[in-house]
Design brief:
Layout lengths: L3 E11 L8 E15 L3 E5 L12 H12 L7 E6 L10 H16 L6 H12 L5 H6 L2 E7 L2 E7 L5 E8 L5 H6 L7 H20 L5 H4 L6 H4 L6 H10 L4 E4 L6 E6 L5 H11 L5 E6 L7 E5 L19
Parallel strand pairs: 3-4
Antiparallel strand pairs: 1-2, 1-11, 2-4, 2-5, 5-6, 7-9, 7-10, 8-9
Helix pairs in contact: 1-2, 2-3
The structure holds L-homoserine (HSE).
């Protein structure tokens, strides 16, 4: 019987406002994959997610990529996807496919690649590391890609924060959201962002949450993207009024992410009430937490039947 590889991949929130293309964190919302070798391509979905069922499928393309890199033929593949991370919402759905596909392929190939190498491949495929790095590693990741190699630091974040994801009912493709960003910026705006990005990562890590509102502010991308996300600025204002530490466009948008202290236990109720009162019924609020663990992978005997775990915590227990 062909081994089946199961992978669990977290959603991510990139940029954190000021850390454009370099900061990202991992959240407690998950996609799942079951992947096994086959004599043909069979792609199914456990939900109604409209995924491509042919060789254009991103998980398939990523598995095939690693097989090609390793010089191993891939006659076919059976993929079963559970997509809880919504598409094109700034929560790392494509990174989840890339990281999941690479981990599954590496496991099917008996782990020829280290996780450092997988991260380099993932960042090259995605074009920037700020979603794939936290998806693979968990926690808060600061990452730079240089010459195809990712230089990064993962930091574990305390569990005294909630991440309020305001997810609209419309998509915003990353390519469209990148087209509206100017090619050149003023020197003072570069300083504005680099100082805040540094403050953002160190403040989150050390628990200096009072810095976050200033630290997440940005002049590189959000002001250009906000016109594509009607309602986002009102959600920023409401979040701060209800006690959020920070509020920013998650990744390329359109989700708005607010960082809230767990002591603000009534934030969710008040925010939902506000959305209702303001007729913003196309937005749903998901209260998430940091995932400090990252993607996990295990080998089983067949889809749906879990056997002994050969590797039960992905990047952190790899022999
Ligand atoms: N850093 C990326 C962007 C994240 O803002 O365009 C989306 O993949």
């Amino acid at each position: 019987m062909e081994p089946c590889i199961k992978v669990k991949i977290p959603a991510t929130s990139a940029n954190l406002g000021s850390g454009f293309d370099s900061l990202g964190l991992s959240l407690t919302m998950y996609n799942y994959l079951e992947v096994s070798e086959s004599d043909r391509v069979v792609i199914t979905s456990t939900d109604e997610a409209p995924i491509p069922k042919d060789e254009q499928n991103l998980v398939y393309k990523t598995v095939k990529y690693l097989y090609d890199v390793c010089g191993k033929p891939l006659p076919g593949l059976a993929i079963r996807q559970t997509n809880n991370v919504p598409f094109a919402r700034g929560l790392g759905s494509s990174s989840a496919c890339i990281v999941g596909g690479l981990l599954a392929a590496n496991e099917l190939l008996h782990a020829p690649m280290s996780h450092e190498e997988l991260l380099n491949f993932a960042s090259t495929l995605e074009g920037h590391p700020d979603n794939v790095a936290p998806a693979l590693l968990g926690g808060l990741v600061t990452a730079v890609i240089e010459g195809g190699k990712v230089y990064h630091v993962k930091q574990t974040i305390k569990d005294d924060l909630m991440f309020a994801a305001f997810i609209p009912n419309f998509e915003l493709k990353t390519a469209q959201a990148r087209r509206v960003i100017p090619q050149e910026i003023a020197h003072r705006d570069a300083v504005y962002n680099l100082s805040r990005a540094a403050l953002m990562s160190v403040s989150l890590y050390t628990g200096n949450y009072g810095n976050l509102r200033v630290a997440c502010d940005d002049r590189l991308h959000q002001q250009y993207r906000l016109p594509l996300i009607p309602g986002a600025q009102d959600i920023f204002r409401m979040s701060y009024e209800f006690g959020a530490y920070a509020s920013f466009v998650s990744g390329a948008g359109p989700t708005v992410m607010s960082i809230v202290d767990t002591a603000e236990f009534d934030f969710e109720g008040r925010a939902n009430e506000w959305l209702h009162e303001h007729g913003m019924t196309g937005w749903r609020l998901r209260m998430l937490s940091i995932d400090n663990r990252g993607a996990a992978v295990k080998r089983t005997d067949a889809p749906g039947h879990t056997m002994e775990e050969t590797e039960n915590s992905g990047p952190h227990s790899r022999p």
